[in-house]
Amino acid sequence: MEDDELEHSPDQTQMENQEIPRRKKGGLITIPFIIANEAFEKMASYGSLPNMILYLMKDYHLSAAKGTNILFIWTAATNFTPLLGAFISDSYLGPFLTIGFGSIVSLLGMILLWSTAMIPQSKPPPCISSTQSCKSPTVGEMTHLLSSFALMSIGAGGVRPCSIAFGADQLDIRDNPKNERFKESYFGWYTASTLVALLISFTGIIYLQDHLGWKVGFGVPAILMFLSVTLFFIGAPLYTKQKPTKSMLTSLVQVIVVAYRNRKLTLAPLNLSECYHHNRDSKIVVPTDKLRFLNKACIIRNPQQDIAPDGLAINPWRLCTIEQVEELKALLRVLPLWSTGIMLSINNSQNSFPLLQAISMDRHISKNFEIPAASFGTCGFMITMVIWIILYLRVILPLASKIMHKPVRLDVKLRMGIGLFLSSMAMVTSAIVENIRRKKAIQDGYLNNSNAVLDMSAMWLIPQYCLLGLAEAFNAIAQSEFFYLELPKSMSNIASSLLFLGMAFANLLATVILNTVDNLTSREGKESWISSNINKGHYDYYYWVLAIMSFINLIYFLICSWAYGPSNEQATRVSGRGSALEEEEDLTNLGTRIRSDGIRLEEGEE
């Protein structure tokens, strides 16, 4: 039939020919450019962070407390800006321009940081060794330094929330149900490449800073960021570039405002599609029955006064579309499951205490080589993640599929739950190992000597790092898939930014938990569980607190998962209808579907 139509319509033939090049854009050829952009950006930015406290204390003469506060604010800002970047991308610029802008701004921040090491006048002069007097940095010098931090945070906000979704858009994995395995591979390899980049930054760049100084140590990240920008724009002609259609935040706020204004209205039956406002080309003609109070935002009160001749609402602050309502519902529905990942991030953020444990233990793997304490946990955590992702994608899944004679893959929510369970077990393991380490320190007479190195191998810490790495490999990748699957395509970048928002909240909550435990356990002159003297404190008790909170969080996850119901992935796999699935819209599970022949089917109808 299509061939006949093309023969009878030359204009249509010309139009179809014009569309062919557009269809060829995207695909696998674009993925290396996108992954390289993200990997180099992370390698550059994260490589500058671990030793930054030393730079602030030695070169800027800041106290440890002030330097730590600056770094904490910088880290929190870097985790929050992706939410703003996602909003700007979805609403105004689109992912391509947002990533490009963020990459350039990050490069400027790296160059500005590099200049603080290259230009002696940009920071205080060295301390006078004879008098031990140090000049404090001036306002201009601090502004120079903090401006570089701010630019890098803004740049990260443009790159990180958009990159993974931008790559997924190139593969068109959302609209093709046959690409489920390919989609899982993409998310896995994306995460693996990012982890390799982080592993290099936490080893190679730190080594350069320690042995060759800050000029080289900050110069290399600037060069890496230049490569990130260059590679991304080289692939520009190949990308499929999604254009923003509306202000997402405004749209969500409009639904809340209109639903509140119409709170006294009686809901119309869901089988009366003429009572609900929707876009003319929409296949969703009635809202879902979940979160019904929001349905009042799309009720048509007076067609003549509410709807213009073109079918749009005359005043969007008095009438919303079904699509707007379902977008807000989708976001509200995933928030409980999103919140379950915060506890895992809190566990992963416990870097200081394992560092103190490693310092007090034997880290030699030979007589002449000792693993640096700062790299011990990071490398173990990331190596475990990379190895597991490769084994899972290249060995376990193909082997299971071959044995079962059908494609095998773990459900996205199941993987999230496994990650949370492994994170809980990591805290249990940490508590047990610390209890053994502390007992040995006391037996050896080191109760008052926290600097003593025990005759106990630091390899005892490896199991907890492996469990944390596995937990992150399961949960983080699964969360990325889950948000991308469950939220409408118009919110894809906001979906990606939820992970960064969760890490930002985790940083703040980890501080609250730490201070609370410290205050409660140090009352009446008692030694705090998290004492500066690791042998006098009870870090094992602190780990048990985190373990208990983690298991409570796991139960909370199970309740949220049950309440959420089947995910899009589960609904797609259960239906098993190839042709119908290809016609499904992104909000299929959120409302009514329309077949191509125009027959309306209510949700769940076969």
Key features?
2 strands, 606 residues, two-stranded antiparallel sheet, disordered C terminus, mainly alpha, globular
Notes on the protein architecture:
The protein is mostly helical and 606 residues long. It has 21 helices and two strands. Strands 1-2 form a two-stranded antiparallel ribbon. A hairpin with a 5-residue loop joins strand 1 and strand 2. Mean pLDDT is 79; it is low at 1-23 and 574-606.
Q: Label the structural class.
A: mainly alpha
What is the topology, as strand order, of the major beta sheet? 1-2
Average pLDDT figure: 79
Question: Number of DSSP helices?
Answer: 21
Classify the helix fraction into a percent range: 55-70%
How are helices and strands ordered from N to C?
Answer: HHHHHHHHHHHHHHHHHHHHHEE
Describe the biggest sheet? 2 strands, antiparallel
- Count all strands and give the number: 2
Identify low-pLDDT runs. Answer: 1-23, 574-606
Q: DSSP strand (E) fraction?
A: under 5%
